Amino acid sequence: MDSGTAYGRKPGSHRSELTLVGAGTPAGELLRRYWHPVGLCADANTTPRKVQVLGEELILFRDGKGKPGLLYPRCAHRGTTLYYGKVEERGIRCCYHGWLYDTEGRCLEQPCEEGGGPRRDRVRQPWYPVEERYGLVFAYLGPPQKKPVLPRYECLEVLEDGEFIEADDSSIGSGGAQIVPCNWLQHWENVVDPFHVAVLHASFSGTQFVPQMSVMPQVEFEATPIGVKVTSIRKLEDGRTLRRVTEATAPTLRVVANPRIGRGGRVESIGWTLPIDDSHFRIYVAGRVREEGELGRFRSKMNGKPWAELTEAEHRDFPGDYEAQTGQGEITLHSEEHLATSDKGIALLRRFMEKQLAAVAEGKDPAGTAFTDGGALVRFAAGNFLE
Ligand code: FES
Ligand SMILES: [Fe+2]
Fold this sequence. Notes:
The chain is of the alpha+beta class. The chain has helices at 16-19, 26-31, 154-157, 184-191, 195-204, 294-297, 312-317, 321-326, 344-361, and strands at residues 35-40, 49-53, 56-62, 68-71, 86-87, 92-93, 100-101, 107-109, 127-128, 130-133, 136-140, 152-153, 164-168, 218-224, 227-235, 241-249, 253-255, 265-266, 269-277, 280-289, 377-378, 383-386. It has nine helices and 22 strands.
């Protein structure tokens, strides 16, 4: 008799406490305890821009004084969207009846009311705090009394000669669309999955990074106070050893040294996996570069072409991160997985998240949040070290 056939299998399910990002969900509330990038600084300008983050749709703009603002889109008057608003010196003006809001949602003018609206102080357009750093606009969507300091990262603070900081929003690791139609956790887990590099990015699809990456590494996985650290050791043909350290840290950071090895040394850039909603994410990156556009140029070419130009047959013949991660489905079915020894990083990362969920449930602050400037400097072990 045949066994193990697909007949009669149970419907799959996913671990919603780890994956869903909406307000009121466990992971959604955990993620709301941190700052997230919601755009490049250049995206905040005098044209109102729709921004989607953690399942919320918001409007990003920059007032005439240069201050960025992030507001709930439905005007507090009668609900039309501020997407059709006009940005002015003091804020954004709704198209319908001209109510004017500042970057913190205060209503400054109600032109259809006698005297400009004597009761306008009673109205507050819902808003979120934003701060700019590393070429990115960061927003905090959580409880105001729990707002941490926006972290600083040593790898972006300490520059070497000739380096400057650049931000990029173009796509995921080996190339793909800017908005990736699957759950953010599929990408974050990929960061601590070093074995896929030697398969997906090397033997399966040809060299997507550099030939050294095709060597199957020896790997050590380690839990850290802010996430998971992976050390991959590769013996190279020239007799040297490449020690590559990668980290996934709270809240959604991928701390991955250049897979092309580059100059070597400490990690040059960090990527934030921004959950747009439960089934879409995008990546913002900030890094130390020596030439403008350097971050975007690291994108892999498949069959000599950038990802956007691949035919369906080429996607099948040369799959990369985008294909593998979206191939797991909108939200992967955890009930159907068989985690193996090589998946220890994923198990550790899920355990890290479980711990943070428990901390939040107990009223504590999750790992990686600091409330004083002094406590907000983060150092990583990540990098490519040739020894
Ligand atoms: S709906 Fe915005 S001012 Fe009336
Ligand atoms: Fe990858």
